[in-house]
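QA checklist item 7 of 12: single-chain prediction sanity check.
[x] sequence parsed
[x] length recorded as 399
[x] structure emitted
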Amino acid sequence: MTAPHLDQLAILGAKPAFERPLPVGQLYFPSWEKYEARFRDIFARQYYTNQGPLTQELERRLEAFFGVRHAICVTNATIGLIMAAESLGLKGKVVTPSFTFIATAQSLEWANLRPAFCDIDLRTHCVTPETIAPYLDEDVSAILAVNLWNGSCDPRTLEEFAAAHNLKLFFDSAHSFGCEVDGVPIGGFGDVEVFSFHATKVFSAAEGGCLTTNNDEIAKRLRNIRSSYGAGPPVPVVKTSNGRMSEAQAAVALMSLEDFPAILARNERLFGLYRACLARAPGLRLLEPTNVSKTNHQYIVVDVEAETFGLTRDQLLRALKAENIVARRYFHPGAHRCMPWADRDSGKTAALPNTETLCERIMQFPTGALVSDEAVARLGDLLETLSKRAPDVRKALEE
């Protein structure tokens, strides 16, 4: 990392502040010694997949971690979301937010369902009964809520709302591994919750995921849908898949579980550093985790108020890219603006004002294993400079 003077910016011709790209994802991996030992064990045993001993051990440990009856590991979270929808026997439409990763909506299409996109609360970025209610009709069979940004929906309120309307409720909890609501781990709410173990997530198997539930019958269906191996007693399901987790994925996940307390502590420290540096940049608001008593600090999400900061979110992204800072806009556009859904409805599903606002203002800043305390401090200096020299930056971007 170089150390430019405070008034120098790469977008204005100076050398980038970072010699190597500073990424957004968590990217925590075990030490080479642990990795090598685990993989030598796999190769010596010559058991590579099909619900092997490491996957079974991981499921047992995750059940204890989440405090749930069942944790079913899968190859990735998208497969998990499809399996969740299939296990619930859904038909017709599922109300889900447009402000989410595209796979949330795509999973419903794969399960022969139709997403009914609803808006989100502008403060929490999550769905509420009030944002869901306008989209309920006789064709809706479930709610797929999304827990975002180190935080959560209000799960108990959603459970009550779903029960009152005789709807199934499941959660895309890819962002919320290790978070708690009033001391209760996220993982046991609704009918099913789905977690991602992608390398960019706080808990990593390099790739993978799991489903959690306290419903024995749903768990039986999930295991039978996943594959014939480790399925347990056969139960009727509409379809089966190859959704099983490999022993290699389970090995990385088990090591991540051992390292998880240290990962949480490091993320919390980085979050605190960001909170301090962003306080020096008017117009940039750090999103604090909502509805949780414990958080994983997985994301640094910032709302860019262009009139105060001097640059729009997209202008700021371009200026940071010149400094080798790989910040991202999430989510853009909303899923309802993407194909195939953009051409389907022109009525209320196209009018999601809070979603539209956030899609133009929200961005993620780098954090995780490859981001140092010094990097956050340098980034804070850059943000101050970018705001002070915003007219020059805007002019450079127009040229």
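[x] summary fact logged: The chain has 13 helices and twelve strands.
[ ] second reviewer sign-off
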